[in-house]
Specification:
The chain is mainly α. The protein is flat and about 45 Å long. The two termini are 31 Å apart.
Length: 92
């Protein structure tokens, strides 16, 4: 697994707030070239360190409250953990 440097962390920080933010905007904000941002994002995605996903607004689905949590799971036990978590009545 690759380690993250300061530039990788800066790129990820921008993408956390807007996964579709243009690489040119990210590059300008952190002072590197657009090509560098593109290459780094590609490397991070290919290595599995970065995944860009869509998140729906809970209110648009009629939910009164919603929460997203992060869970650390040992390699090879993701399916087992997901099945366990899915048993909670609060989980959809």
């Amino acid at each position: 697994m690759s380690s993250l440097d300061v530039i990788d962390c800066d790129i990820i920080s921008h993408l956390q707030y807007n996964g579709r933010k243009p690489y040119t905007d990210i590059a300008a904000a952190i002072g590197i070239s657009e090509g560098s941002v593109r290459r780094r994002v590609k490397r991070l995605k290919e290595s599995g360190l970065l995944q860009i996903v869509g998140v729906v607004e809970p209110q648009s689905l009629g939910w009164k409250a919603a929460g997203i949590i992060g869970v650390s799971v040992q390699a090879g036990k993701i399916e087992t953990a997901a099945k366990e978590i899915a048993q909670f009545p609060e989980v959809t």
